Amino acid sequence: MKAVLALLVTGCAAQPIDSLGIACMQDSDCPTNTWCDLRFNDDVCRDLDVIQPPTITFDGLVVGGAIVPTITVPTHAVTFHDFRMHDLGSETDAVITFTGPHCVYAASETRSDGELIRAGDEFDGQFTTDPDPGCASPAPLAIAVTASGRSFMFTTTIQIPP
Amino acid sequence: MRKIFLISIITCVAASAHAEDIAVVAAPGIAAVPASGLDPDVVKRLADADRDAAAVPPAALGPVIDRVLVTFESSDPFSVAQRPAAKPRTLAVLTKIGERARGAGELVIAARAFDARWTLGGGGHDVQLAEVLTTWAERDEDAQPGRALYLARRARTADPGHDRAADLDDSLSRNHRALTGKLAIVAGFVALAAGIYAYTRVSAIEDDLKAHPRPGADVDAMLADRDRYDMIGTGLLVAAPIVSIGGIVWMVSGNPSYSPVSPGELPALVQR
């Protein structure tokens, strides 16, 4: 009897939201408790109870395999540095950019069409610096990550010797 | 020649069966018909019955009916021969008994008297019998529908124009659940069709949602419509077979489970 009542209340022809494939271009196009999945050109609403949207976190700069609060970069030379990120949501392609003061010449060395970050995994990438002498230190770096139409902004600092 | 002789013998034997006298070997002749048309015993019996019909309490008139009908229930040639002569007075006594019993509320006795009168009278139009039988049938309708059906049909035979008897006969013969049962069956099919339509609306809304993006509020409204159609459709599709099968069961259960049953008191007169 309970099963019949439940059937009557919920119906049985409707598909679950997650498998329905409601077209969207942004989260606001989706019903409550869902998000717009723009990964891999799906462009459909996903149920938050079934799958979480990508959520990128910046762990920090990496030296010798360890996270450090800041690094010192040399002037007059292009040098490569490591950073680490995590994806707490679903797998996604992420486009990562580094922006700093003009004199620092910071640039991301990740793929311009996006790096694949697996769900729950950490991602180690690189960026370069080529600061001019006399550049203010510490210099702030802004890190922008765009994944499935979502933007994540982080900041860190680097030390530039005089 | 031999054939003619045999035919003559057979004809004589047959004719002797209807002779006025019964011949017993070595005995005086026995009259098969009283000279006056009615035997004195029969005359006395009818006279007594006529007197009792007015004097005996109505509830005790049953035996009086029995006495009145002796001549018509006996199959001996002597009684049979007196029937035509006894008939008018018997009808009168039966009428008196019936009317008195009916007036006193003795339905069964009145019905017996009128029924016997009706049978003796050749089964013609008898409004009084129809009225009494109908009243009896109405009284027993709930407790003994088979008996009530018999009484109603007999009343209808006695008086084809008797409306209450006809109504009672029709009512007891008819399946009172037929109409509601058929309606339920039809309602089940309507529910099935409506449920299928509701499901097509669910599919149409889902296809529309897949087709192109729209504001989330619109999507929520469309999903609410979809869920409403889904709930209604599911309810209708669940209810459809239940209603239809229930209608069939309801209709079948309404078929009269009884057949006409004559009460022990009727027919009041069985002529042999």
Q: So what's the overall shape of chain B?
A: rod-shaped
Largest interface: A-B, 26 and 24 residues
- Cα end-to-end separation of chain A: 80 Å
First-to-last CA distance of chain B: 40 Å
Mean pLDDT of chain B: 88
Instruction: Summarize the amount of helix of chain B as a percent range.
Output: over 70%
- Radius of gyration of chain A from the CA trace? 21 Å
State the total count of DSSP E strands of chain A: 12
For the sheet with most strands of chain A, the description reads: 5 strands, antiparallel
Oligomerization category of the chains in this entry? heterodimer
Averaged pLDDT of chain A:
90
What is the structural class of chain A?
A: mainly beta
Strand content of chain B: under 5%
SSE blueprint and pairings:
The complex is a heterodimer of chains A (162) and B (272).
Chain A: H1 2-10, H2 17-20, E1 34-37, E2 44-47, E3 56-63, E4 66-68, E5 70-72, E6 79-87, E7 92-99, E8 107-108, E9 115-117, E10 122-129, E11 139-147, E12 150-159
Parallel strand pairs in A: 5-12
Antiparallel strand pairs in A: 1-2, 3-4, 3-6, 6-10, 7-9, 7-11, 8-10, 11-12
Chain B: H1 2-17, E1 21-22, E2 30-31, H2 40-55, H3 62-68, H4 70-73, H5 77-103, H6 107-120, H7 127-140, H8 145-158, H9 163-173, H10 178-211, H11 216-253
Antiparallel strand pairs in B: 1-2
Helix pairs in contact in B: 2-3, 2-5, 5-6, 6-7, 7-8, 8-9, 10-11
